[in-house]
């Protein structure tokens, strides 16, 4: 027993001593949810080393055993009340959902609730007691060095995040936040932050440049500068993290690091969500990964890396709300990547590096029809998948059908000189246009091999996703920005 506890202690030390990491969230409000072993195979195939669960699902925790993946488990909001009122319930929760799986499953953290302060205020009085009871149960099991406890909060409990240097927590919650910070300080844990530049940009009414939200370089005349510190902010992500550090400092607390437990960018939106595109999502997440893995912190804390979890593994198509709410996933449920990215410092890239040939947005419908007819006829493209009742028929638009036909022709004939033009209606892209069970020729997908794992293959045509089903309905945080006109006049030089 002593040796086992010593090993857990050593593992705990190395989990915090290692460099910055990028993990991923697993929401399960998904049709055709893969089995737990298949999910783990997808994680391992893509070198994903850190996973956040919104609950403590037994199937997932068993499947993660001996995988080496570090796991953050969650106490669902509906369970916080009972735990916060009963030390015995907290101890039972730890025994059932944490101790029972260690050390085979490498559980390193517990997220107590999700955005409780801003979304379920009636739970606020029991939030810190729940964290304390859970921590005492960890201590009783000698697991407190291995497993850290915190509670994810949305950016909207900081009403004015710009400029970062003057940011403070909402005064209505400052007493509770202070108690949370005191707990984190006493237990050597970290502040869990859900921060979404997508919402910061889309709610800013054009005040901030899109490049600022996507980690792209800004010209000197548009650089964002905090007028009090003169710190330059190259990305909204860094500014949001720094606003949280300054808010913590405003409560006379220090030495508490921040882990971003949710961030990301939707790759598909409705007609009124023009910024939710695959191109923007690929840009944001690729630049996010590169930024996090450089091991540096925001301007006010340059030596403290920003460990981050991307929202999310799969598209949660069963979520309510606008189209964008359902399309944050990096992967489809059959394991194929939505777009190209790499989740590690290695050279392995997830997705497809080849070009796809797709119809241009707003191309002339008459020309698209002509190009579609030629590709499916003289061009020799296989257009079976866009016939009614087939996987790529919907959406039933010229642009969608032409994209599929153009790409099929291009992939088959490019080696003998075929081009992607079609009378000016087509262009190449590195973003895989596949969606759902509609797979474009040339798309990279992951299929089960004989050993029960996954191997990367090239999909010759449409592939039907596999899996079962499970549901967890958890909201994506919405950042509420109250922008200072004076500050904006100063920083948008």
TrEMBL record:
Family statement drawn from the similarity comment of this UniProt entry: Belongs to the glycosyl hydrolase 17 family.
GO CC terms: plasma membrane; plasmodesma; side of membrane
GO molecular function: glucan endo-1,3-beta-D-glucosidase activity
Gene that this polypeptide is encoded by: LOC105119579
Organism name: Populus euphratica (Euphrates poplar)
Catalytic activities: Hydrolysis of (1->3)-beta-D-glucosidic linkages in (1->3)-beta-D-glucans
EC number: 3.2.1.39
UniProt-listed SMART domains: X8 (SM00768)
Annotated localization: Cell membrane
Membrane topology: Lipid-anchor; GPI-anchor
Keywords attached to this entry: Cell membrane, Disulfide bond, Glycoprotein, Glycosidase, GPI-anchor, Hydrolase, Lipoprotein, Membrane, Plant defense, Signal
Signal peptide: 1-19
PANTHER family per record: GLUCAN ENDO-1,3-BETA-GLUCOSIDASE BG1-RELATED-RELATED
Name of the featured protein: glucan endo-1,3-beta-D-glucosidase
X8 domain boundaries: 355-440
GO BP annotations listed: carbohydrate metabolic process; defense response
